[in-house]
Amino acid sequence: MDLGVLIDGKMFNSEKRLEVKNPANGETVGTIPFLTGDEAKSAIRSAHNAFKIWSKTSPIQRSRILRKASDVIRECSGQLSELLTKEHGKPLGDARKEILGSADVLEYYSQVCVDLVGEISCPASKTSKSLVFKEPIGVVAAIAAWNYPVSLIAWKIAPALAAGCTVVVKPPKATPMALTEFMRLCHSAGFPDGALNVVYGNHSEVGEELFSSKLIKKIAFTGSTQTGKKIIQSSASSLKKLNLELGGHSPLVVFEDANLQKAVKDGVKRSFRNMGQICNALNRIYIQESVFDIFIESFVEETSKLTIGDGFANPEVHLGPMVEENGLHTAKKHIQDAVSKGAIIKYGGKKPEGAQYSKGNFFEPTILTNVSEDMKIMKEETFGPVVAIDTFKNLKEAIDKANNTDYGLVSYVYTSSLATAFKASEALDCGSVAVNTVSPDSIYAPYGGRKDSGFGVELSKHAMDQYLQFKHVKIELE
Fold this sequence. Notes:
The chain is α/β, with parallel strands linked by helices and 478 residues long. The chain has 13 helices and 22 strands. It starts with a strand and ends with a strand.
């Protein structure tokens, strides 16, 4: 399948193209155009020109088009899911969930945008009035990681378009195809030409053009902390507004009064789903000492039930391959470092055996115990199917250990005590705390990080403000 990229309402092709591989078997899924910096400039100019039109449309009109886009995505969810599974490797059911969730985000912001209002502020005097307007910020560059390429872009472009902004999207290198088709289908819902654009190419050309262009007013990025810091530096000269959702190192704290059966099942899910390639995946689990042995035994047993395979050829498997070979190297490096310092592999730790795994980036879900704070696994984001499990004595020790990281995205707490839940939630230094659940995000609530996990929020009505700028108009009546 050979795709073009979307620029100014048209599908653009070039002679230089990138081959996209299936990480389950190494076969070519298709190709996508590889653009130059000049072609990226053309897309940015197109978005800039379209902004003059789209920003003046009424919220009701924007709402109708966004709603139609969500309908189009649902109608085409089957083909998008298959394409996503082929390039990513995740099971077909997980891919379909991502596509349908992206349609839900488009629909949600079709509703939110009609409630976009300014305010009348308290007057400075009897003869003055102060009006506050909310205006779209301009052209937005949206960049997402390869682990959830479609949904992470939907989180960005939906509130941006709802606010009246136009967008230029740069797909991830490993998984660009489903996202590119998603953008084309969204455009077909009736957006003006140039409101949605897709550019793909080298970071040194295309990426730097997005970061340095004065026509780009905001960058919304999901990816590694290292890349996020580079974006801050590259965009500093033009003082762009930034939304950065970066890396994580999420802890799960399980107290002795928790529903252990639920904590085990949920913990396995959040540790290994998508092969641990999730910014809010579990990296560390802390178990109260009195229930440690029973938790570990059950956790290993539950993990052993997970099946691994080609997510397209066998949609019923729980886990597919890792997307990039580099991810395998990082997982192995962290395991080797931990074992060299005394950690014990309770399960996994190697590539699964069998001919069906020989050509793909497969790796067994891995459980480590007897861990210590000096291990890489306890500090660095693995972004793979490896979880470290430790103990704690009391609430204070649990919080100290959970907060002992440069990251602050999501933390998880399992307890039957409301008092413990509140005390832990207030003490954990992160953007989201999930209590007795491993589903921390919701369309209706803000999602963002602290510390090295970034700044700004996505999702909820609060995300709209990330794509707006405020203007105060003071009127003297006499």
